[in-house]
Amino acid sequence: MKNKIQQLFTIAYPIIQGGMVWNSGWRLASAVSNSGGLGLIGAGSLKPEVLKEHIVKAKRATSQPFGVNVPIFSPYAEEQINVIISSGVKVVFTSAGSPNTYTSLLKSHGILVAHVVSSVKFALKAELAGVDAVVAEGFEAGGHNGREETTTFCLIPDVASRVNIPLIAAGGIATGEGILAAMTLGADGVQLGSRFAATEEASSHPNFKQLIVDAKEGDTELRLKQLAPVRLLKNSFYKQIAALEAQGASVEKLKDALGKGRAMKGMFEGDLIEGELEIGQISSLISSILPVKVVFEQLLEEYRLAVQLYETEKYRF
Fold it and tell me: Which of 68, 138, 219, 267 is most enclosed, with most CB atoms within 10 A?
């Protein structure tokens, strides 16, 4: 029997690939969709005309459902939405902004909408806005994060008890055991970012992928809370930001230090010193760069073994 997320998106497995900036191009999205999940093109790092190219290439590479992730705070968001509608994309995940902005427009064109939130408060607002599903993302996640700093294990059951729409868990999930844990807590599906960033099909630079698999516990930290909280790997740029924040730097000084193109420099161009390197805490459990197909095989086998173990005496009291 298919669960709510499988039914909603017409996919084989309730596994969604996060739409990560500089990581999630058409190759990654189509590979995930071809493996039975839902691939997302990350529009946050794509100008509208480039997004259109990625959508066209994804359609050529897969006959399965795929979608686009649109950060609402992007200066190109409105143009990206128009490209998505005109290109016939059927799934959109929105984030970093109010779900009221584009949900009605997208749904009027027959597009399924999911919205990423970091708290029960915003999950309820997303449900009221009419989204089809909500992604509850815990503090462990990479990239831009919630100021509440609520962990996935606390967030998921809380949101599950309050909303009536399908729930997708995100943040700190990269294994089959993690998928089972999230669904045991009330999620209908999961969204994985960091695990798919370290795949052969990810559009990020090989230097960044290698740093992901080399990361150890404690190598990431949430910073820039005064601007837009973001979890970063600790490098020279991170240390610069940490020092400024320790000195009580103003928002303006932090913006100057961040500058423009910092994430592209780090994740796409491979500058591990001065680039912005966004990744989740779960990177410490990722030990290899693999093809998406192999990652799916591992996830499904781990999940099945975890279910079998869950049903044994070990977990009975």
Answer: 267
Sheet holding 66-71, edge to edge: 15-17, 189-192, 167-170, 133-137, 112-117, 91-95, 66-71, 39-42
What does DSSP assign to residue 136? Answer: E
Cβ(15)–Cβ(190) below 8 Å: yes
Instruction: Domain ranges for the chain, please list them.
Output: 13-203+283-315
Neighbours of 293 (CB within 10 A): 16
Q: Which residue has 């500089």 as its token pair?
A: 22
What dotted CATH number matches 13-203+283-315?
A: 3.20.20.70
Supply the pLDDT for residue 316: 67
Dig out the tokens for 188 from the structure: 């209908």
The length of the chain, given as a count of residues: 317
- Cα separation, 200 vs 198, in Å, equals 7
CB 283 within 8 A of CB 220: yes
Dihedral Cα 65, 71, 76, 80, nearest 10 deg: 20
Nearest Cα neighbor of 19 from 182, 135, 156 is 135
The pair phi, psi for residue 42, each rounded to 5°, is -85, 105
Distance, in Å, from the CA atom of 88 to the CA atom of 106, rounded to the nearest integer, reads 11
Q: Is there a contact between 223 and 246 (Cβ–Cβ < 8 Å)?
A: no
Residues in the chain predicted with pLDDT less than 50, given as ranges, are none
Contact 48, 76 (CB under 8 A): yes
* Bridge pairing between strands 167-170 and 133-137: parallel
Question: d(Cα 258, Cα 263) in Å, to the nearest integer?
Answer: 9
pLDDT for residue 74: 87
